[in-house]
């Protein structure tokens, strides 16, 4: 029996080492950040397109969208996640982060301490972003007001609170491949970048599987609200009949074709996206219509 036992032990050790290696946090090469210099002025556009304030601004009525003290709660089947303070406060925000640490957090989901962030943080979308845009975003965010409000700890039960397990989740669901492909026009390509990488539209408008990964086969076709109340509407598929003009106008003004008004979290999204240039909103609209043909 001893050879069999030793064999099983060896397999267990090999499996453990392999699993530990596969689930390790993987940072960007240091050369990526080293060659970049952020432009704060350009970063404001990235800030608006990425919707940072939509989640990280304060929860009080009339909260300043540039004061990123966090606090918003996001309920999921895995627990409740709270948006952290990402203001430039050095103690409770990201004020002591380097540009490289910021890029690793946003594009790889890896904290300055070398741990996985939970994927409630939409780094699976931001990983497709141009590193220069993320460097510009970092430069801009460091110009915003600091706030010393401590971040609230997530309320996530075992085993979902094991951050190392997020490494396996990343293996399954995190990649830089575009979902909408083919012979896209220049406008559709621009819209794809804005919608898939920066604005991360799919994070809310696409259903998820049992482990929380996006169902790419039902891209933008609507999803159950993670809070358990209602449903996030489709922006693609047979049930979505808006024109390019309808989509662009909605992103700019918040008014639907039937003159209803965006509410809830979408109102915050539009408060940011609506400040982009009209050609950029038109590009997102073109992309969404192209996605419906995929």
TrEMBL record:
Source organism of this protein record: Roseinatronobacter domitianus
Keyword Metal-binding: yes
PANTHER family noted in UniProt: ALCOHOL DEHYDROGENASE CYTOCHROME C SUBUNIT (PTHR35008:SF8), BLL4482 PROTEIN-RELATED (PTHR35008)
Keywords of this entry: Heme, Iron, Metal-binding
Entry protein name: Cytochrome c
Organism lineage string: Bacteria, Pseudomonadati, Pseudomonadota, Alphaproteobacteria, Rhodobacterales
Domain called Cytochrome c: residue spans: 38-145, 186-292
